[in-house]
From TrEMBL, chains A, B, C, D:
<dbReference type="InterPro" id="IPR004304">
    <property type="entry name" value="FmdA_AmdA"/>
</dbReference>
<protein>
    <submittedName>
        <fullName>Acetamidase/Formamidase</fullName>
    </submittedName>
</protein>
<dbReference type="InterPro" id="IPR054833">
    <property type="entry name" value="FormamaseFmdA"/>
</dbReference>
<dbReference type="Pfam" id="PF03069">
    <property type="entry name" value="FmdA_AmdA"/>
</dbReference>
Length: 413, 413, 413, 413
């Protein structure tokens, strides 16, 4: 009678290379062996490494960000079989809590170079940079971005069930087609990559197969969610996930202490290692019942609330910085909106990289405002004024302060 | 001592053709004559027609939507000179209230054909359709979309200051370039249109000039906002607008009783005629002080609040309905997100056009979730569950109901 | 097809004495003649005078407050018969909107002398005082309390159905008993008062009876709500009211542009004349079905939201200002809490009467925190910091400003 | 560089009697020896026992509740000296997090008999009863109150600085006076109690003195807060506490996973042992600067938000259940409001004790609505409908369910 504590379905070892831990894997593939079974309606804790598997240090140089090996990431925890789950079911995952490790109360936000990962504004801000965030309970602050402090909207960046062979083949088909027809001069998608594949407890032969066929953990995909980077999947959320293989083979990772809509600097969340508490419930035949093609969720009731009137909101339109008119392009519009914020906050003494980092990880609200008045898409970006310890209202004159610097790389490759 | 009522800066006549009313105009041009002067710090009421200038009727046919003459719209109220405003200033406009006319408590939402206006999903839903909404205080409901009722997030779809000749020329240049290079087979922008131009109190010669050069009121534009269709510009908002001409020449119109993020069906808001109460304050040299290129705003404190946990939120990614992978395209992702909602709500007996209309006008939250995990942009669309009078939670079985029909056109052209 | 405007069930005349208007009455009595019938599920507008029936002027003297004739108030609109309503039913009243009259955009807050009405802090603040509030859309501000501005949480102070003869008799019994045993030296309840009774369209004989038996409109009472002064009965609220007589005989009045929890200065709300839009639905046998003895309500979704972290909250305990310990007395505790706020805000230059007025009418949150740790009740009072245009956070030094004065009476009787 | 984890200023031992742990104490007295020093601006973790020091078991009998030894409680953690704090300063305590112990994820709510502790409704509900709550991340549920589940508004019930000798003398004077003049027939306050006093590391002589003079930890008191039981002192709150002795001698304890306004069943919160993370900042001369007599606080931004329209709110007035009219008595009014909720929820099959427990610990909102309309105080109690997994709206017929039972004592003493 009474709980003795919640079972931990996976413990990770922060002092051991991620690739040597059998409960982790870094590709989506139906054949990655299960790392244990979870009962229907069970609550478990699952430990997770940060998305790089420990490649980033708590220091003042961004050399580590510049040199991150992206063939390795993300190390996900799992996959776990959930009892009774079958293809066509929906797996209801309730996110009951997310916490950093008690003895590692810090995280990081990074700006990647265009050569290695890139980011939403990398043509304008091509240097590698980094901010370290210290956690004080539910709050975080950074020596690299002074005068800012906020409560984290803590969440996992990645969660989802394994693809079936058919779903995986479709992913490889359509992303391969994009790569094949690419004329942009930049990397447009990440094909299967045999280097540094880690198939959990797969034997060598299976590991090779997973490397050859397995989908990368970048990006999120409609059939299962995966790396969706939705900041609102925080404490208390209920996520409804399509099941494609027997047992569901659920994986989770890439924990974020906080993130802004868009996660614009790519490694834009406050990335951390930690523990997630989840409850699993199988809804039989859920995909047909809910007409579900992509995940659905309900946020929890405890999101930080600033009040609608405490957001300073910026508008952006699909005219790029060279004056070129684009057609209803919300991506371009959101890029412009981000630039408007940078121009505004720069007046207080921040350098642009600090703001770029901040916009990526603070709980900013990025909305699609209008998408039908040709040719301009309009997007908005709401910055909660209360994350600053000074007054950023437009009617108050901006006073330049000494804002120090974020961490940069010694040489930007 | 004490107020005797707020001055009405413009009265409109609902029974007189819009084109005959001198306080209205339907193009953006620096030379549209001012319709009176507003003092710095003054509060005024301004009456507005609906965006079509009265072309839509409260009936059960969408023939009027199908046949709307888009060369005429939008009829804006103004322009008004604001005392002391000069180019380079910022005009702070506080939206103190928006109300429908007391004796006309209804509005409409329309789906336009691809041949005339189109919409975000017009390839899939090409028919003209309409829903009439009845206003009961702050709430609205529609005989064309049963079992739905919600409080309006009332706001103006269009507000802004007149462009300078230079700004206008730039608009015409870049939009003209888009038109000139268009290979999409569909209309991509709206060039100046001499037909049906209404320059307010302009004489005939000036009217011709305005028709030749004046920018259309579709779309919004970064330099002044204009037709930005931001649902959160509601009661209590403070909007900071760039001033480009002496006196600012402020105009407003296109009142919406409610709108969802994206306004996806084009005439997607609940369109209405009514009265807006505004306070005007000039911030001298504000554009330089705030480093402002596009409008900024702060929402008011009274937005309808459902609680974060009362949204059912759908995910969408930049893979289109034919399985084609697009590169970080938030517009495609949002289209997919909308389709996911339609598939979900269809199970209750709504037809797709009803849902398309509903998504356009109910206060749905459209967020840009992730924009950096190549190649998939991820967007979310949160539907407030409390706008329905039945339970739409995924764990409750969907029961099909008789949902009647929205209004369709007799023949879809 | 379609609405032509909502029916106005009662128009009031601001230029005619309240006592001469047949749609008004100022006592609760089952025999007050009905002023028309409302259909089940009908939406109507009802005009209301301010609670004094026009005794207060928009000027800078509180003589009118000092001299208010309390035998006359409140002039309520109604009563209205609602079709099909019978004793034992519940009348669901949805408050769809509340608005001040367009040509009378102002209201007042008053402090009454102990000799005439009194107030929560009248032993400490015995002078008559007044603040006039100007309405600008949803906002209000006062020349008598500078540097403050907020959105109104607009609501009716009084609404309810008529008592049955039995209910009325019980009211007179129990309140009479309190009066009969009163040893406090102050007025403790208001017995029936024949002077200035206004029974609507009652003939003289009936009017006399109503004066002899009818319950005063001060206070609210458990059996029907009445003068409950609940600030959250604002736009969008659904109120469930017990029905005691055939037709329900519903009345409403005492409109408030805003009020704080407790309405502490007695005439503490921002009192106004205006229009309320209501929808009426009869729930048959509702009292038994809901086990209802007193009204229940659900607030609407549009209350001003400041965010939980934007309240500065004060604690108070049931030890009075003379150091006397009281036993779990929440009334004493709340009085102390109010005094703590006055002491705090006084530092900015406000005089105590200004703060007393402000606490009465601004949307302050008064909570019962703890009621069981003998002998101290603990209450809290949360002041939304964003109603001030200066920074009231405790970590910011208070700077005294010239705050002018509220209106006082020439001689305090 | 970088944090290695936050220092734990006090560890408690759950397997050792509370009275043997030197970092705990159970009286307020200036001479309780300090248990270590905290730097100005330091963040520390402090472990706390539950308020009974471990007297309650996770089982299905309320015998332990019935027999709790109230001379022992509360065991507080501390006192801690804060560097530089002097009498007259204000100690700003930021509550950065509160967590239950990981291996003890449960808590309890109790109803005490009138003979031992009592409660707000003990005349009506005199039996000892108990509910055990299981914690699943941020949520809790109870086998003793089925169909209910909610996110905890986690907070400390007690925090404060030690009284000076003068303050302590005043407490003893005024509470002694209340006891001396008590004619109610029930215990009205708790005088100093030598039995079971635990003065932390005090030697025997000092312990005797503390027992003779020290103030009990029931109730909260205006001069320092203490046992204030304010549910909103949750994560992210900033509390401003008066300092009365050198070093402040801060203590904290009585952690609550959740509580409703009023904590009506006395042991009404969900009581638990756990860890609190606090940041301490000394504001020199703060009491004079802030005109502070009692604590002030700002809630944090992460309180569970249900949306204003998701509360079902009950009204209560100061007429007691025997029909007696009381004069502006908010305590009586709140008692009536609680009874109205019990009558309402009973219809679903809950017994009254279950509802009494639930109202005590769920995040219900207890407001003082009106306090000036003689003779009725009006209070409201808002129940968040979303804590139930069934529909409690009034328009839905109540269906009785099998709700099991809370834990009762075998014999109620």
């Amino acid at each position: 009678m009474g709980l003795k504590g919640i079972r931990t379905a996976l413990k990770v070892d922060l002092n051991k290379p991620a690739r040597e831990q059998k409960g982790l894997h870094n590709r989506w593939h139906p054949d990655v062996p299960s790392h244990g079974t979870i009962a229907n309606n069970e609550v478990v804790k699952i430990e997770c490494l940060d998305w790089t598997g420990g490649q980033i240090q708590n220091n003042d140089s961004a050399d580590d960000v510049r040199d991150v090996d992206l063939t390795q990431i993300h190390y996900l925890s799992g996959p776990f079989d959930v009892e009774t789950a079958e293809p066509g079911d929906v797996l209801l995952v309730e996110i009951q809590d997310v916490q950093p490790f008690e003895d590692q109360p810090w995280g990081f936000t990074g700006i990647f170079t265009p050569e290695n990962g890139g980011g939403f504004l990398d043509e304008i801000y091509p240097k590698a940079a980094k901010a370290i965030w210290d956690f004080e309970g539910i709050f975080c602050s950074s020596r690299h971005i002074p005068h800012v402090r906020f409560a984290g909207l803590i969440h996992p960046g990645i969660l989802g069930c394994a693809p079936s062979p058919e779903v995986l083949a479709e992913w490889n088909r359509r992303e391969g087609e994009l790569i094949a027809t690419n004329t942009t001069g930049r990397e447009v998608a990440k094909p299967p990559e045999p280097r540094n594949v880690h198939g959990g407890s797969a034997d060598e032969e299976l590991n090779v197969k997973i490397g050859r066929e397995g989908a990368r953990t970048i990006p999120g995909r409609p059939e299962h969610g995966g790396n969706c980077d939705i900041k609102n999947l925080s404490r208390g959320s209920k996520v409804y996930l399509p099941v494609h293989v027997p047992g569901a083979k659920f994986s989770v990772g890439d924990l974020h202490f906080s993130q802004g809509d868009g996660e614009i600097s790519f490694c834009g969340a406050i990335e951390m290692a930690g523990v997630i508490t989840l409850k699993f419930t199988v809804i039989k035949d859920g995909m047909a019942k809910m007409a579900m093609k992509s995940p659905i969720f309900r946020p929890g009731p405890v999101e930080p609330q600033f009040g609608p009137g405490r957001y300073l909101t910026f508008e952006g339109f699909s005219v790029d910085e060279k004056g070129k008119q684009h057609y209803l392009d919300a991506t371009i519009a959101y890029r412009q909106t981000c630039l408007r914020v940078i121009e505004y906050l720069r007046r207080y003494g921040y350098d642009d990289y600090q703001i770029y980092l901040l916009l990526s990880c603070a709980p900013v609200q990025g909305h699609i405002a209008g998408l039908v008045d040709i040719p301009n898409a309009c997007t908005t970006l709401g910055v909660p004024m209360d994350i600053f310890d000074f007054d950023i209202r437009p009617e108050t004159d901006a006073v330049k302060m000494d804002m120090g610097s974020c961490a940069f790389a010694s040489i930007n490759s």
